[in-house]
Amino acid sequence: MTDRGPRRIAKYPHLRQDFAASLVVFLVALPLCVGVAVASGVPAELGLVTGIVGGLVTGLMRGSSLQVSGPAAGLTVLVFEAVREFGLPALGVIVLATGALQIAMGVLRLGRYFRAISVSVVEGMLAGIGLVLIAGQLYSMFGAKAPESGLGKIAGLPGALVDAVSGAASASLALGAGTVAVLVLWKRLPAKVRTVPGPLAAVGLATLAALLLDLPVATVEVHGLLGSIQPPSLSAFGELANIGLLGTIVAFTLIASAESLFSAAAVDRLHDGPRTEYDRELVAQGAGNALCGLLGALPMTAVIVRSAANVQAGARTKASRVLHGVWLLLFAALLPGVLAYIPIPALAGILVHAGAKLVPVRSIVSLWREHRGEALILVVTAVSIVAVSMFEGVLVGLALAVAKTAWEASHLRLEVVDKGAGPIQAYLSGNATFLKLPKILDSLESLPQDRPVELDLSGLHHLDHACRTALETWVERHSAVGTEPVKVTA
Q1: Which spans of this chain does the record mark as coiled coil (predicted)?
Q2: 78 pLDDT more than 70
Q3: pTM for the predicted model, two decimal places
């Protein structure tokens, strides 16, 4: 007899929990990988490739031990636009460059600064993506071709719905709507039923219904794993001279990095294990994206849905996310033909549901009650993304956030209390900068010269040199006219 078994258990004390969690994450990730790829306008197998790299490469690296990476709904719109504008061969170049930039930012220790990005801008970005994603995927459910612009997609929805209900696409609409219904109602079912992940159950039921009822709906096109992998050619790298493509790379980098690091912060709140090392996580995401680019696959981010499923399934170490990559690889290698049976309306329903989760309705309501400026930034960012494009919309949001910060930094309030007798009380609060100096002096110089004044500066958060000098000069002038000296409280 040997003691290899006990030794193995001692070396991997959480192997059982991680193994079980990896199966759950695999079952959640499988339909999402395929759905994101189809919605992005690329072969379905490329979504699986990105999921495999997210598990086997990014999953092995240090950073955030429990969050899971793969193709994300949040980048679907941007990938679709990039493929439409520059072509599929250029996608590998874009993703490779994105990975290289992420690695550079991680090495330069810039990961922590992504946490300084306004949460309203990030939520507005995700809300805009969600709205465009919902609008685009509804056309897939209706069996119709979606218009190119975001506003066109939304404006054309009523007509497309009428055509779908009255035309030959009614089966497609019913299948997509049924998928959404299953996802919405899945949480209300008994716990034993919910051991099967909702997305897998929804796609499985839709596939079964399409086969048994012989429904006339479109299904996923299968190209084969090796046939779908198309490394970028040397000529594709010539596109890097295109200013538009460089802007797309910047957008990919900022959005993928921000989404991954915000996801890491959210996952950290779900467990008591090691905290995320943000710079290392950025390097891990960059390494994964660089390899995905070399394979011509989709970009990756950390995905909160899979990460939360990983934690809730009892994962304890990074082994669970690595194993989920192994299961994706085995499926892609051994059972690729199964993809050909999956109805596209079912995948569209999954992404409509995922897109709805990206729109933070409750956050908008609470922000409007407490911080209307932040709510305005969120809404304007989302609307700009729908009306113009992803990159410009994010820039609009960032500009608004900077303008709001500058406004708050220069906000100043002067409150004067005159009870008719005794000293006049003047309270300054906020941030006294040279930008507000004329207003400060006009208000103070308008006070009666023959009355004593008490100037309270304790409410100031900031008092720059110019304002301090001007206030000292005013105090000297006011005190020199024969009244009591101005009493200053700091």
Answers
A1: none
A2: yes
A3: 0.75
